[in-house]
Amino acid sequence: MGFTKHLPLHIQIKIKLEEEILNEVYDEKIPGELDLMERFSVSRSTIRQAIAALVEEGILEKRHGKGTFISLKPVEEWLGSFSTYENIIDDMGMKPYIKFLSMEMTSTPQNVAKTLEEEVFYKVKRIRYADENPVSIEENYYPLELGKKLAKFNWDNVASYSLLDSLGVKLWDAKQIITCRMPVKEECKLLNIDETIPVLFIERLNFDREGNIVEYEHSVYRSDHYAFIVKLGRNEN
Amino acid sequence: MGFTKHLPLHIQIKIKLEEEILNEVYDEKIPGELDLMERFSVSRSTIRQAIAALVEEGILEKRHGKGTFISLKPVEEWLGSFSTYENIIDDMGMKPYIKFLSMEMTSTPQNVAKTLEEEVFYKVKRIRYADENPVSIEENYYPLELGKKLAKFNWDNVASYSLLDSLGVKLWDAKQIITCRMPVKEECKLLNIDETIPVLFIERLNFDREGNIVEYEHSVYRSDHYAFIVKLGRNEN
DNA sequence: CAGTGGTCTAGACCACGAA
DNA sequence: TCGTGGTCTAGACCACTGG
Questions:
Q1: Which residues form the HTH gntR-type domain (chains A, B) (predicted)?
Q2: CATH of domain B9-70
C-alpha cells in the first residue's frame, strides 16, 4: 500500500472495510470476525475495534448470533431526525404529497456562488401538500452535470435524496439556515395564504462525503399551520 | 450488591463509575486503568470497555499520557452546537448582552401543562442585545421550587443554564419548536421593530437526566437581521 | 448442532506528557 | 525516567440465532 505512515492496524482495517462497504463489495453482511482475522492476519480484538468504530459511525450494525450488517441509515432517517416537519394542528392522518411544478436552468444561487465557481445550476420547483392543503414551496438546485441526470426522472412525490441515491450520490453533511419573512405575491397564491401571514424560510446546503455541494434547497413554509420540531439529545435519540 | 441480575462486568463498572462521577466523587480526573483494574479485580480490557462507553456518552475524555478526565461538556457547547444564533449581516464584532426585565409567578404555560401537574411557574423575562440593538425577548419558566432558588440570582447578562448549573441542575435533553408569526405591539416596542416585520418564535423544553422538565424557554427573535444556522452531520462535528 | 457475536483474561510493547 | 493511555495478541468460555 505505498507508504502508509504508521496507522494503527485497527484504523487501517476500518478504512479498508469502510471503503469496501461504500464500494458495495458486500451485499448486506460483512464477513464474520473469524474470516476477517484470517484475512488481515490480526487478532480478534483488533478486528472488533475496527468494526466498533464503524458501528459507532452508523455504517455497520451488529446482530448477536447472526452477523454484522451494513447499516448506512437512509438519509430520510438522518435528515428526519433533525428537522421533522410537523403539523401543529395535530391532524396526523394527512397524506403528504409533492407536486412537480417546473425544471429549468438558472444562474447559480447566491449561497452556492460563494463556494463554487459554476455559473449555472438546474432548478427544480415543487409544492408540498398535506392532503389538499399546500404547505411549502420547495426549490432544489443542482450542479449542471448532476442536474442533467436528474432531469430524466419523474419528480412527482419523490424525495430528492432518493433520486440522488439512485445515482449513487450520498448526502453526508448539511448546513441549514432558518429565518422568516413576509411572502411575495406568487408565494401567497401558491400556498393559498393571505399576505399578512409570514412564511418560514429555510435554506439548506447538502454536501457529500468529500465535502462537495451536491444540492441546495430553498424552501418556503407557511407558518400558520406548521412549525419545525427539533429534538436535541447528548447521545442517540 | 443484592441481586444484580447478571450484567456484564464492563456494564456494571460503567454504571458504578458513572454514578460516582455524577456524585462528584472525583474532582476532575478518574483513577488510572491500573488502579481500576485492582479495585474491581478485572482485566484491563474490561476497564477500558467501561470507560469507552462513558467516553462515547461524552461523560469522560481521555488524554494520552495524562489520564482520563471528567468531561460533561458544558451545556453552552452542547446547545450551541445546535442552534447557533448568528447574525446574517455579518457584523461579527458585536457584543452580546442580556438585560433583566422582570420576574414573577405566573400560571403554568400551555406547553408544560400537558406534561406537568404544577399550576404555578416562575417566569423570568429578559431582552437580548447585540451591541445596542435588541435581538430577542426571552422568557424562562421554572417550577416553583427551583424558581425560588433562582430568584436570588442576578439575571443580568448570564446564561440561564449557568445559574441552573450552580444549583447542581444539569440539562440533558431538549425539545424545540421553531415557527414564526407577526409581533404584538409590546414586542415591536421592545425589539424596536415595525409591525410589518415577522418574528421567529422559538419554544424550548429542557429536561434533566431523569426526564423532568427543568426549564421552559419562550423566545421571540426579530427576523430582519438574524437567522438560525444549523449544522448537521452524521457524526461529531 | 454449528456459526456468530459478547465477554473476559493475562500479558506484551508502544507513544505521549511531565518531571 | 515514570505513569498514563494506545495497540495488539492468543486463547477461553458464554449467549444468541438458525437449521
A1: 7-73
A2: 1.10.10.10
Closest Cα to residue A111, out of A205, A212, A211, A214? Answer: A205
pLDDT at B30 exceeding the cut of 60: yes
Beta bridge partners of B175: A231, B205
Asked if residue B94 has pLDDT above 70, the reply is: no
Nucleotide minimizing C1' to CA distance for residue B62: D5
| CB within 8 Å: A173 and B231 | yes
Question: Are B200 and A177 a contacting pair at CB < 8 A?
Answer: no
Percent of chain B with pLDDT over 70: 84
Rg (CA), chain B: 22
Cα of B152 to nearest chain A Cα, Å: 29
Which of the residues B51, B178, B195, B201 would you substitute to probe the A interface, choosing the one with the greatest number of A C-beta atoms within 10 Å? B178
Does the domain at residues B75-229 carry the CATH identifier 3.40.50.2020?
Answer: no
Q: How far apart are CA A189 and CA B160, in angstroms?
A: 43
- The Cβ of residue B62 has, within 10 Å, a number of other Cβ atoms equal to 15
Span(s) in chain A for CATH 3.40.1410.10: 75-229
Indicate the average pLDDT of chain B. Answer: 83
Confidence of residue A87 (pLDDT cuts 50, 70, 90): very low
In this complex, is the C-beta atom of A223 within 8 Å of any C-beta atom belonging to chain B?
A: yes
